[in-house]
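Private note to self, pasted from the team thread so I don't lose it. Backbone tokens:
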């Protein structure tokens, strides 16, 4: 299978597809799948532009709206994750993934899909310690602060990805895993990006949760973007545990290394259709009670003798989810427009206020899987304050957990950032050790 990997798209879909088609023409092959590693900028109209955390000079409508409106159709199946320059109000409609436009699929906050026997996982956003343990509380109209925190990754998605036990072929993240530079030509990187030197020396370049996932999941390939340069590395996981080929790419600009074509082995007996991943679906279902839309801190479960804290599903649990989907995990082609797309001939419609929209795709997905839509929970909430909230939730499976979400104002162990909190680091190590122990045993 030929897979094209793109770094930061920055809304330049037309240019990316044109480049891809020119390569196909020159080399005489056909690409089966395009993967974009964030900063996709799926802006449908000027309201979406106002929800992007970029300076005004970068608020360009670009070309995604043409694919959203139907004026154009993506010439190849495109899968993307979110970065830190996104139409976040649009992506919040598809928190568990879905069609952003026909033939253009978003993986959600985190997600796993299968395509022709290749298992692809992804984590959207970038890591910021101060928001890592919060719920998905942001909603439009965004403040200047929430316009940025909305794309910060959360511990829930990382926790869910750590429950995967089956081999992942391709993993996507926007920012790089910390420590990855020690597995490649760091000298060459510093000649191109000399201002990375201090962060590399302090092991502060990249995402700590992504590094944890790299060593836990051990995917065959890991693709990233964000830092606007090309960098390759090979990470060995030890004898008989394999290795990961890491590749980061640049943004879509002339004379930049933003696109790479790879041949990846796949099951030729399986059709090139996009399917949900059964293990991932089951994990999302089993951990629905851990979802929070509060600003306060949320803790993922750790080693315990009294309640469930590992959610790697059993065969019986997976069979239950497969039955809920009628035995068919094919992703339905059910793209639906929820807003009026941009039109150069109808600029008056672009001055409407930004509104929060439920997406029929997510509604159907959540109904089938038996989970909550985070956006629907936000719409149901009566306030956005950080008042401490305690609750117990009992899902339709055993092993339910009771938990308390602490207000940030009441968290005395926090200074200005969770990155500087020793208790946070201890908690992360506690969870990591427990996960590793379970896998080893």
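Design output:
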């Amino acid at each position: 299978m030929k897979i094209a990997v793109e770094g930061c798209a920055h809304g330049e879909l037309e240019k990316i597809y044109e480049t891809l088609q020119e390569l196909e023409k020159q080399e005489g092959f056909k690409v089966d799948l395009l993967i974009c590693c964030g900063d996709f900028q799926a802006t449908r109209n000027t309201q979406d532009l106002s929800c992007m955390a970029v300076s005004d000079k970068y608020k360009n409508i670009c070309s995604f709206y043409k694919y959203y409106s139907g004026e154009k159709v993506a010439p190849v199946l495109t899968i993307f994750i979110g970065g830190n320059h996104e139409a976040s109000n649009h992506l919040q409609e598809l928190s568990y993934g879905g069609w952003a436009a026909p033939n253009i699929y978003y993986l959600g906050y985190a997600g796993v899909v299968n395509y022709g026997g290749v298992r692809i996982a992804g984590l959207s956003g970038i890591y910021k310690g101060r928001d890592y343990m919060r719920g998905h509380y942001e909603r439009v109209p965004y403040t200047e602060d929430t316009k940025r925190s909305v794309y910060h990754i959360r511990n829930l998605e990382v926790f869910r990805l750590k429950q995967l036990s089956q081999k992942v072929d391709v993993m996507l993240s926007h920012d790089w895993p910390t420590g990855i530079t020690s597995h490649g030509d760091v000298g060459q990187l510093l000649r191109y990006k000399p201002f990375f030197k201090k962060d590399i020396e302090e092991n502060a370049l990249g995402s700590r949760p992504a590094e944890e996932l790299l060593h836990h999941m051990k995917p065959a390939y890991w693709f990233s973007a964000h830092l606007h340069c090309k960098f390759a590395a090979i990470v060995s996981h030890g004898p008989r545990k394999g290795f990961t080929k890491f590749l980061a790419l640049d943004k879509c600009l002339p004379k930049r290394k933003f696109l790479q074509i790879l041949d990846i082995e796949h099951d030729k007996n399986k059709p090139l259709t996009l399917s949900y991943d059964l293990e991932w679906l089951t994990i999302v279902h089993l951990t629905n009670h851990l979802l929070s839309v509060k600003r306060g801190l949320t803790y993922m479960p750790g080693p315990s003798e009294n309640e469930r804290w590992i959610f790697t599903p059993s065969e019986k649990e997976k069979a239950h989810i497969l039955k809920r989907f009628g035995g068919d995990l094919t992703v339905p082609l059910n793209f639906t427009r929820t807003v009026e797309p941009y039109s150069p001939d109808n600029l008056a419609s672009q001055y409407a206020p930004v509104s929060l929209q439920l997406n029929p795709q997510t509604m159907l997905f959540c109904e089938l899987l038996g989970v909550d839509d985070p956006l629907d929970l936000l719409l149901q909430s009566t306030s956005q304050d950080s008042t401490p909230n305690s609750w117990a939730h009992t899902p339709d499976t055993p092993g339910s957990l009771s938990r308390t979400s602490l207000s940030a104002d009441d968290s005395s162990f926090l200074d200005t950032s969770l990155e500087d909190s020793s208790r946070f680091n201890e908690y992360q190590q506690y969870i990591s050790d427990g996960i590793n122990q379970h896998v080893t045993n």
